[in-house]
Amino acid sequence: MSSSKKVVLTGGPSAGKTTIANAIERSFVAQTIKIPEAATILFGGGFFRSKKPVGVAFQQRAIYQVQSSHEAIYTTEYPHRVFICDRGTLDGFAYWPEGEGDFFKDNNTTLEKELARYDLVIHLDSANGNNYDFTNAIRTESPEQALVINNKVKQVWKDHPNRKIIPADESFSVKVAQVLDIVGRFVSVHTQRPLQ
Prior knowledge:
Elements: E1 5-11, H1 17-27, E2 32-35, H2 38-44, H3 53-77, E3 82-86, H4 91-95, H5 103-106, H6 111-116, E4 120-124, H7 143-156, E5 163-166, H8 172-190
Parallel strand pairs: 1-3, 1-4, 2-3, 4-5
Helix pairs in contact: 1-8
């Protein structure tokens, strides 16, 4: 039986999710393992990126399936680790286009099931102003669009009972330190291995 726990790093584009997930994995190497972002796996591998609403709905269904399957595989392979998820299954709801069916029905799930998948949600606000990262080839949003998405993502996770919000107005090093502190305390409670 798995005793794994899931921490999801969520937020808008250019919030530092992947960089912070890597920092967590390096800091708690014996206790955690990172589950990479499904959208990056798909789009980075050549999955077609549509801008039409019906195409976006297909994309979000695929992302949901990859994310949930990936989490299941990692749970089988590493049953006693704390998983650091670079985005969670519920993030797709924030990207879901209006008028293209129902995210939960189409993915055979419910809001309650998706919230219950994760033990801790850390929302990282998108970078603003000059701190926005334009170097990620997978990222197509402008800084203004990123803030809209950030707010949508924040809204879809609002009912999670263990959610922490890390604002963007701090320096990135402060943001990393805040998350490492939160995760460190979580890991020390949920693993039997001592922190390194």
